[in-house]
Amino acid sequence: MGRLHTRVLVVSLLLHAWLAWRLVPPLAPWPAAAAALAALLLAGALLLPAGLRRTADRRTLAGLVALGLFSTLFVLSLLRDVGLLLAGLAALAWPALQVTPGFEAGSAAAVLLGALLATLWGAWNARRTAAVVDVEVPIAGLPESLHGFTIAQISDVHVGPTIRADYVEAIVERVNGLGADLVAVTGDLVDGRVEELAEHVAPLARLRSRHGSFFVTGNHEYYSGAHGWIAELHRLGLRVLLNEHVVLAHAQATLVVAGVADHGAHHFDPRHRSDPVAALAGAPADAALRLLLAHQPRSAPAAAAAGFHLQLSGHTHGGQFWPWNHFVRLQQPFTAGLHRLADLWVYVSRGTGYWGPPKRLGAPSEITRLRLVPAVAERARGAAP
């Protein structure tokens, strides 16, 4: 860790030095602002490597906040430079458009102010308890006994250095208040080993719903020792689904709840290769609902081919904060919300916690309450005389 820390520190110093070069000199008309920015950038450069630590203390939190601030400062500075370049090119044709020192100073101040406000607002969004998002999922052929069946989904909590038991307890309290028929936990619950985080995950044992709580692994479970966490979650009363399913009886209807290991699980354990077909093997063919829990949205094509009605996923965090939300589609077919793929509905949660910097902008955390309803065409036919 010492050698890695040194390398990160060197890179951090270089990148923050570039920011200082681009932003501090233009603020010369306001010496106090220039000095404050220089001090802030130096502090950020020195603190940022602490964000790599797994220790739950103020130093780690400060390092992660510094990382979030740097990210926004860097992006806004690049955009400022592009704007100045375009303005300079325009001035070659129209000298009246020449960039003035006042504009350079004002734009540098705007970058600083925008990054600070975004970091503060993003931290508040990340640290608050996730709001409940209600989603109706229309299912063709849904029997009347399943109208209004509710699933509470939490995903990507990332219990670790900055998310601890009190954060998890607040989530559990809010989920239990929904009175859901089923609770789905769609992976990336933890960032750390069982021996480090067991007490902070323990509140999940108090999750309550009619049919119980179900869990599937995400990529971060494999980074954190998946086998240990599978055993621990079993001990807490969550049913872990590894390419398998359970059959539930709800009133006069039958539901199949299946789950697959994370899409990349086979890189850590070949026995955990994600397989929606295997997860559905032996399930009753006349089930009114075939539900798949799969951490990554890119499991959807295989889930659609296997014959599932609904897939619940997470992983993307909805991009967590701008501009990274625009890059999610390079890896995943869906970023957030409800989508249709052939006969399969796919719901992608923006996540209930956060990863890395405590920062959410444009992608608020959520606890999702999904409610099954009959498809619109069928409801219209049923209402016709």
Structure report:
This protein has 385 residues and is an alpha/beta fold. It has two domains: 2-126, no CATH class; 132-383, Metallo-dependent phosphatases (Purple Acid Phosphatase, chain A, domain 2, 4-Layer Sandwich), CATH 3.60.21.10. Helix content is 41%, strand content 17%. The protein is built from eleven helices and twelve strands. The chain has helices at residues 2-23, 31-47, 58-93, 101-127, 165-176, 194-201, 219-223, 226-236, 276-280, 300-306, 376-383, and strands at 131-139, 150-154, 182-185, 213-215, 239-240, 244-250, 253-259, 289-293, 310-313, 337-341, 344-348, 366-374. The strands form two sheets. A six-stranded mixed β-sheet has the order 1-12-2-3-4-5. A six-stranded mixed β-sheet has the order 6-7-8-9-11-10. β10 (337-341) and β11 (344-348) form a beta hairpin. α1 (2-23) runs antiparallel to α2 and α2 crosses α3. The radius of gyration is 24 Å and the shape is elongated.
